[in-house]
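User: Second chain of the day. Same drill as before.
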Amino acid sequence: MNDFLDRCRGTVGTNHVLTAPGDTAAFLTDWRRRFTGKALAVVKPGTVAEVAAIVRLCNEFRVPIVPQGGNTGLVLGSVPDDSGTAIVLSLTRLNRIRTVDTVNNTMTVESGCILEEVQNAAAEAGRLFPLSLAAEGSCTIGGNLSTNAGGTAVLRYGNTRELCLGLEVVTPQGEIWDGLRGLRKDNTGYDLRDLFIGAEGTLGIITAAVLKLFPQPRAQLTALAAMQTPEDALRLLTLAQGTCGAALTGFELMSDFCLKLVAKHFAQLRLPFPQNYPQYVLLELSDSESEEHANAMLESLITDALEQGVIQDAAVASSIAQSKALWNLREHIPLAQAEEGKNIKHDVSVPISRIVEFIRTTDALLQQSFPKCRMVTFGHLGDGNLHYNVSPPEDEAPDAFIARQAAINRVVHDSVHRFGGSISAEHGLGALKRDEVRLYKSEVEMKLMQTLKHALDPHGLMNPGKVIQA
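Assistant: Same format as last time:
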């Protein structure tokens, strides 16, 4: 492969073809540090033309390609396997914001742009890019699009798919498709854009995107509500939607155990209540009218919820600092669980109307088969997405518990399927859930996916072993 690597160096520059172990290590290990793969090299193109040229070289030499952005994924979708035959194609040098159009409310950005930088650029132009998630300081737009990332504002603005109007993509043959159209209506054939969004780099490489922008809200209010049961949380959601309408931007469910873990491992983060409650909801309003209007809506909602016994207490942030403090409670749950030790994560979605029954039923099933396991249940209740995580009993060795992951996954995923849900809501399938999903998709659906894969990537070079077994 020396000839191949030399030609890669001639295409992107010697400094951007990494082969030394010290240089490639960060690209080969997944974010949770559960798996480390091997690669022929890490190649870092700086333009879409260079991406296309590298893909053509990979076709010529039949070298598999693993596209990678910020490498913040949780399902082994952005790291190579342990064969050492693939290159990692890092897109972090494609990090330019090409245009901002405040009249059309769009922004054209390259796929290596960090999400937080895109948010900031939108804000500097007096606009809002609403995608928000815990890894926004390190994840990239290309990765967000490739996994159809969700986050905390899906309730109002939708997943990343809904925030994208057009794409630029390098095909598996090394051709460049320029679909960077900032159009909200375009009925001129198959929707190629949606083929590549959520495909995790298995059908082509996203190199740029036209993203939707929105007016900056005139007011953003954050509140934390305490209640007894998940049923109360659903009742609060119904009240909030009726009172606040489209102003309801975020609605996050957190159990008491989640926040006890946060307090245990991050002592500086404390609940604003004098006592603990079984369940909490963090909600956010984004109002386009005025702060007074937003305050009136929130006050009306909390008053009604208290009077109807839906919630027992509520704390409303009166400053940006207090709002950040409340959001920190939510965002530190995964970090606290990691500090607690190894755990088994599930990113699932269930119809909102069935979430309560799903939690109750699945909790009971897990306790029957794995007594004293500890449930870390939190997530985006407003759009039906739960992070339904399982930590080992306090008296069980973490490694022994993790050894039972397949059995625990089966209990959870079978239950998700019975409730009409999905075993991957926003993290994707990657390699981790590639085989698992075959248990829950029909043969027709799997054949359709395989047909698309074979048609677009006949040599199977694009992120092999991810999403679907070719």
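The CA atoms of residues 104 and 437 lie 39 Å apart.

User: Great, on to the next one.
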